[in-house]
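ok so for the tutorial part 2 we go from a plain amino acid sequence to predicted structure tokens. step 1 is just haveing the sequence, like this:
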Amino acid sequence: MSTDDLVDVTIDGKALSVPKGTLVIRAAEQLGIIVPRFCDHPLLDPIGACRQCVVEVEGLPKPMMACTTTCTPDMAVKTHLTSELARKGQEGTLEFLLVNHPLDCPMCDKGGECPLQDQALEHGANTSRFVDEKRRYDKPVAVSEQVLLDRERCVLCARCTRFSEQISGDPFIELFERGALEQVAIYEDEPYESYFSGNVIQICPVGALTSADYRFKARPFDMRSAKSTCTGCSAGCSLTVQSRRGEVSRQLARTNMAVNEEWSCDKGRFGFHALTHATRLTTPLLRSGDELVEADWGQALVAAADAITAATEKGGDRVAVLTGGRVADEDAWAVARYARAVVGTDRVESRNRFTGPEETAALQALVGRESATYADVENSPVTLVVGLDPREEVPILYLRLRKAWRNHTAKLVPVGPRMGSLAELAWRRLATDPGAEAAALAAVGRQLGVASLAEAGQDYTAPVLDDVVDALREAGSDAVVLVGERAGVGALAAAGRIAEHLDARVAWVPRSAGSRGALAAGLLPGLLPGGRSLADEQDRADVEAVWGDLPARGDEADLEDVLTACSKGNVDVLHLVGVDPLREAASPELAAKALKKVGTVIVQDLVVTDTIREWADVVLPTTATQEREGQVTDWEGRTSRFQRAVDAPQLARDDWEVLVALSGLLGADLGYNDLDAIRAEMEKVGLRAQAPAWPDVVQPEVTDRGDELHLLVQPLLLDNDPLLRGADALMATAPQPRVVVNRADADALGLVDGDLVTVSAKKVDLRLPLQVEDDLVAGTVLVPADSTDVPGRSLLPARKGGTVTLAAAQEA
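step 2 — the prediction. this is what the tokens look like for a chain of 812 residues:
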């Protein structure tokens, strides 16, 4: 930064230079001078509401607020440390705030971590001149099922209202009344509905906003804290897990400005109750007849090893291994080596979607390439968001996109059948049918002059196409393309081609926390660690030098192929690590057929799932993120560590420990005694010397669907995930599941918003209220993936997308 962009100021006699526009309160912090404040927050716009940060500025006739005053050349500032005027002003403000503030610190949830307590002790008077009765309100007010408000404690700092308006975009909490009657409240007909409500609790500087989960449960000085990383989605948020008497009491957002800044979503903050829920697995189980009975680890491991041995005697491909999104990086690596080098199978998969070989080739090309980051998203002049609703799938990414929009630094272009949470933020939109995002991207690439997209697939036209292409061309290497896992065949490859042409950044944004780690470990058919190919001789040799002999490349391309092989009787053992196919697989019907046909189902998991209850033969209890150490890789490719916060149930084991023990019984030594050994091997194998080229863009064929409607299945942030069991207050805030259609389709069918309708396909009926909107492309029906007793994904056919019929529900 040049000297022309700096101003010289003096604070309490100490000189420094700061960038133009720096607030006095920030400049003072650089000198180690902490000016008392309540309303100030570095990520919120300054407001000067609490009047606590009084300072004296030489040459000005009255005191100024340090949180709203910017530094000017040669400004001389005196804080409470050197100015009697500033000190008396702060004491007077505190006295005024305490006039009606209840002195209930021993029972207040903020006790022990309250800025008002601290400042009253350091800057307040020893006695009170107030002798009248304090103001009282009925308490608490339920701002939502998760957030409770004690109005008499509020100091009107407006942190909560500013967060809701500026950061999350949920302006349903506001300041009402005037003067002494002013208070935080909500509209009676508009409840405070937000996926980010827990942040207003954390940034409240007093005990006005409290959590229904944590209220009257503990105090900060009663608890132990551990640094952790959220695994609720692929955002990679930094958390602090606080525990009391061996149980998690609360989880707080931990400052990490490169990732989640100072925020977290409510799922990551409140979704930990499954650790102590009645369905938590605490001991190994073995099936005896129609029941699962308790066993010891020796019996369970021997049963699993015997089944695998019998299967591998017929060939390693008689065993299939599937993993889920909660699996840590080290566990994914251990699973990959166990499956490939011990069992000898290529029937491995970590995705719950039916994708085909095209996505695997694109993901292989992604490994080793530098991914887009949160900073890139925030600073990019143009961001294409393809097949992704970030608020529902990766909430912290949504906050960063919204920040870029609010700062007028980004033109956001959703690509897909529905804008969803990006509707308010979108600059232009490229609308497509479900699964046809690649056609829109190919059209963009053709106009940009991407040679490899010159003949790619179907034609695509849109009135705004020229605008988007011009913006991308102008942005050049600063452009960003984000591709969600719901984007159709060929979308990631087309996005990669566009980014390569512009020398820009592309990122794959999966929903699950473990997806990037599983990809790096090679937990996809035909893929090896570091983006290597099982069919490539040099790639095989690189991995065999560390792991030993590897199996031949199998015929499977994705989860559909693996489950189909199981359903045809070609698999004897199905080993599931942190995954519930009956709930998570794209086709629960095919998953049920596979589980029924397989001889032995081995499950490693945290809680009892439908798969365990109905089909598991061997159940091995494992540990949660809060109960162990490890690391996880977010959608950027950034790796974060987490610490053990509480002890796991006595008989639970880390996933990698289970695999080491099972491999030993199978006559193989994985060579892992701790996590450091796994990490050392991960580093030793490393990445492929050169990332493969982006594959050709393959697009699905267009078929005539007659009078039927395209089916779009979208996961919601708060759904029937077994790991959300017990989080009753959190789940009470989940939006009501609805069927969504375009207004034109609703009119054609004689339906109106709120009607109870039935969506039908594959002999499956889903009954839900109707939501009519203009955002969803015409000819499409959107249903939630897993928020109902009959999962919306049950309507999906196999790989080629699906159609459904929609009609008013018949009376029962």
